[in-house]
Amino acid sequence: MDVDSPRDDTLAGISKGLQFLGGVGVLTLRSVLSFRRPPYYFKQTLDQINIVGVNSILLLFVTGLAIGSVMALQFGYGLEKFGGKLYVPKLVALSIMREMGPVFSGLMVAARVGAGMAAEIGSMKVTQQIDAIRALGTDPVKRIVVPRLIALVIALPLLTIFVDFVSIFSAMLVSITMNIGPYFFIEKVIKATQLSDIVTGAIKSITFAYLIVIFACYRGLNTAGGTRGVGDSTTLVVVAASISVMISNFFLTKLFITLGY
User: Fold this and answer.
1) I need a labelling partner for 154 at 20 to 30 A (CA). Which of 11, 13, 54, 137 fits?
2) For every one of its 261 residues, what pLDDT tens digit does the chain have, with 9 covering 90 and above?
3) pTM score, whole prediction
4) In Å, what is the CA distance from 158 to each residue of 76, 121, 235?
């Protein structure tokens, strides 16, 4: 009985990875080209903004509360040992706006929205609804991918700003228990925060939104194997999107530091 060698498995994995990246690149190009020509599906785009944006507010509200509370506790009791407790507002605000807010928003949205998109589009693929769209003379990329991409690119930066404010507010509440006054906290946050901090967070969020949607749509459009294939696609998208958020965050942070932002 023939047994595949580890080398063959490695080559097969590399081949699948390259095929996945190539397919994502082609889908990106097709999406850009489709966006430039009519028709424009405004209603579908608004519906997607409601699905991916408005319906995610509660989840991200809880996430923001947790982020701010934990960071205030860790910085507060950690810096208190060195007499630096008064630096808590500045450290919390900058950490949240530049890193924690965009990253945790991206991860939560990847888990919720990415899985939902992959499952929805994968179900359409295995039930031949995608083929029906093509038969009617409509481009599936234009009809399915572009509205979702536009919706999340608009919604995720706004959700990230929302998480930033909720996190800073919860950090302020926790800081009060450590004898840091709310007026002092707000004053230090305003002084420490610059427009570049908000812009870098927004740019990261836009990048994360693109990665989440393009991975979900590509895998959904290439789903095979019935309902089991839909489940596999959903799992793969959540894992791939989450990893891509963390990896791209590192490179974006390095880029902003190099540029002096």
Assistant:
1) 137
2) 444 566 666 776 677 777 777 888 888 888 888 877 777 888 888 999 998 888 999 999 999 999 999 998 888 888 777 777 788 888 899 999 989 999 999 999 998 898 889 888 888 888 888 888 888 878 888 888 899 999 999 999 999 999 999 999 999 999 888 888 888 889 989 888 888 888 899 999 999 999 999 999 988 888 887 778 888 888 888 998 999 999 999 999 999 888 877
3) 0.88
4) 28, 25, 26
Q: Residue 54, class by beta-carbon neighbours within 10 Å (0-12 exposed, 13-18 middle, 19+ buried)?
A: exposed
- Secondary structure class of 194 (helix, strand, coil): coil
Residue 84 phi/psi, 5-degree rounding, is -110, 25
CA–CA dist 256, 259 (Å, integer): 5
CA atoms within 13 A on the CB side of 102: 28
Task: Decide: residue 61, CB within 10 A, 0-12 exposed, 13-18 middle, 19+ buried.
Answer: middle
- Both tokens of 105, joined, read 């928003």
Judging by beta carbons within 10 Å of its beta carbon (0-12, 13-18, 19+), is residue 94 exposed, middle or buried? middle
Please state the length of the chain. Answer: 261
Q: Rounded distance, CA 33 to CA 15, Å?
A: 27
